[in-house]
Write a structure and sequence with these properties.
Radius of gyration: 14 Å
Helix content: 55-70%
Largest sheet: none
Number of helices: 4
Distance between the termini: 26 Å
CATH class: Mainly Alpha
Length: 91
């Protein structure tokens, strides 16, 4: 079998997905990628207020079309965004 096991590929895909999400969030917040940790949350930094939360949603929705605003209203952190997107795309 080429390219490793299926579980290795799934793990790689999860890492790629997480990186894409954090890069989009960093770009939207106009901060360095290295500052976007899973525990970063709305209100924890000056740039991430309620309006920016909506901007993050719309930025992520450009890439992840299945995202729904009602689900995004429950999101509070980078980790929540990652979990939400993973759940939407694991159907």
């Amino acid at each position: 079998m080429h390219g490793g096991s299926l579980s290795q590929k799934n793990e790689m895909n999860k890492k790629v997905l997480e990186r894409e999400i954090t890069e989009i969030i960093a770009k939207t917040l106009k901060i360095n990628n290295s500052k976007v940790k899973k525990n970063l949350s709305i209100g924890s930094i000056q740039q991430w207020d309620s309006l920016m939360h909506l901007n993050i949603f719309f930025s992520l929705k450009k890439k992840f079309k299945k995202l729904k605003l009602d689900k995004a209203a429950e999101v509070k952190s980078v980790d929540d965004w990652i979990k939400l997107i993973k759940n939407e795309y694991n159907d």
